[in-house]
Design a protein that fits this description.
Helix content is about 55%, strand content about 0%. By secondary structure, the protein is mainly alpha-helical. The protein has one domain. The chain has a two-stranded antiparallel ribbon. The longest helix is centred in the last third of the chain and has 28 residues. It is globular.
Length: about 210
């Protein structure tokens, strides 16, 4: 079984943080963290992390920068609020799962061919345009659930549930990691590795020209 080193390294790094989302609240005294509400893309709760042990401070501070950490949209473990909200937790779980899948994927020179392995059917003879259209549809399936769930909350009185937030985040995170890793891994594949002419007898290639 072939293991790809590049996605393995990324998987280990992402897993370290994702596990920390659970380890940090579990290993603090009950009631140490939360309820909280901050803002995304900024460290808005620095005072809350000042007295935490170093490991927990790193996890919560990094999460503070990436997530709004609204307590009503977050899970609690051991009576402590988790470092990220339910949707972000799903995204990081999805990223971790997607990276793990790509660790065992064979790199292809064309990232489209790698991604189309997730779509049933034979795609080797499809045109590039047709492949791209299929992948756009696949990307839509990955992104739309989260956009619809979050968008409805913004423009209507609809309030989602943490379970739905987690599931939509999970789908998005998995798809995002697969798309990104396919793109990056295709740059390391051997030129001509996926070229059908390499596997055919010279006389047989005449029919393809």
């Amino acid at each position: 079984m072939r293991i790809n080193k590049f996605p393995l390294i990324i998987f280990v790094l992402v897993s370290f943080y994702t596990l920390g989302l659970f380890i940090a609240p579990l290993t603090l005294e009950p009631g140490t963290v939360g309820p909280l509400s901050g803002g995304a893309n900024q460290i808005s709760l620095a005072e809350e992390w000042r007295d935490l042990p170093v490991y927990h401070r790193v996890i919560y501070t990094f999460s503070d920068f990436n997530c709004h950490q609204m307590h009503e949209r977050s899970y609690f473990i051991n009576d402590n609020q988790m470092p990220v909200c339910a949707r972000c937790m799903g995204i990081f779980l999805g990223l971790t799962g997607g990276m793990l899948v790509m660790v065992f994927f064979k790199p292809e020179p064309d990232y489209k061919d790698m991604l189309l392995k997730f779509v049933p059917g034979e795609h080797s003879r499809r045109s590039d345009l047709h492949k791209i259209m299929i992948l756009v549809g696949l990307a839509s399936l990955v992104i739309l659930p989260m956009l619809l769930d979050g968008g409805l909350q913004m423009v209507t009185s609809h309030e989602s549930t943490n379970r739905v937030r987690t599931v939509t985040g999970l789908i998005f995170g998995f798809g995002l990691s697969v798309f990104l890793m396919a793109l990056l891994m295709s740059t390391t594949a051997e030129p001509g590795e996926n070229n059908i002419y390499r596997t055919l007898h010279p006389s047989e290639t005449e029919d393809l020209q």
